Amino acid sequence: MSVLLKSLEEGVLTLTFNRPEVLNAYNRDLHHALLAAFDEADANDDVRAVILTGTGRAFCAGADLSKGGSTFNHREHSREEHRDGGGELTLRLFEMKKPVIAAINGPATGVGLTMTLACDVRLAVPGAKFGFVFAQRGIAPDACSSWFAPRIVGIEQALKWFLSGEIFRSEEALSTGLVSELLAPEDLLPRARAIAKLFSAKTSAVSVAIARRLLWQMLGAEHPRVAFKAESQALWYVGGAADAAEGVKSFLEKRPPQFTMKVSTDFPDWM
């Protein structure tokens, strides 16, 4: 049985964690399946957006703890050599050229929650249990969450959650901006697909990829001049390309645009 189900429909790739017997706990198989799926999504021009969700009653209950007390023991590597798998995942998400929406259909804790921080949109169902539980497991934050979380909810709120390790509900996640909407379970995926279609119905795939890359990268920029330079270069590139000409012509002619540029071949390699 595959640990990750994949379904492509009308330009939207839905990736569904498929380990319901352990609440979709994260393991190496799921890790590698997700990384491969993201590579495939970026290479496939039929994919305009990606949705992450879970099978059964959970989104992802965090790391698979079946190894017991040795679960987080990576001393086979040196401190300098070790790299966190969750961080590998969120860095790959950070580099995505397609929008990614997390449709959080149930409990999301540990890496099951931190992985969503690198998604562009987070939706959830009412009453879902969330938790940055690392302090209560005697470990450290993962998945680059110490970079992402304060930028999403602010440093004070991030500290409250990370220092206590307490479980909180999706209603608190909504009020603090961690998720943008709460939806009934039957409405969650339809809403995620509707948002995905907003990102793709009238837009240039290359323009969307460039905008996503710029917005994420500029979160770490030290001065607006960094954005000034990056946007100037991006505008130089797209301004002389086919999609810009089509975008202007379609507007003037009052018709839907027919963009032809492809992310797989036309995304600038210097971004």
Any overview of this molecule?
There is one protein chain. The chain has 271 residues and is α/β, with parallel strands linked by helices. The protein has 2 domains: 4-200, 2-enoyl-CoA Hydratase, Chain A, domain 1 (Alpha-Beta Complex); 205-266, Lyase 2-enoyl-coa Hydratase, Chain  A, domain 2 (Orthogonal Bundle). The chain is 43% helix and 13% strand. The protein has helices at 28-43, 85-94, 111-114, 145-153, 155-164, 170-175, 185-200, 205-218, 224-239, 242-252, 263-266, and strands spanning 4-9, 12-17, 49-54, 100-104, 108-109, 121-124, 129-131, 168-169, 181-182. The protein has a 6-stranded mixed beta sheet, with helices on both faces. Helix 4 packs across helix 5 and helix 8 runs antiparallel to helix 9. The two termini are 38 Å apart. 34% of the residues are buried. The model has no long low-confidence stretch (mean pLDDT 95).
Could you write a compact summary of the structure shown?
With 271 residues, the protein is an alpha/beta fold. The protein has eleven helices and nine strands. Helix content is 43%, strand content 13%.
Helix/strand layout:
Elements: E1 4-9, E2 12-17, H1 28-43, E3 49-54, H2 85-94, E4 100-104, E5 108-109, H3 111-114, E6 121-124, E7 129-131, H4 145-153, H5 155-164, E8 168-169, H6 170-175, E9 181-182, H7 185-200, H8 205-218, H9 224-239, H10 242-252, H11 263-266
Parallel strand pairs: 2-3, 3-4, 4-6, 5-7, 6-9
Antiparallel strand pairs: 1-2, 7-8
Helix pairs in contact: 1-2, 4-5, 8-9
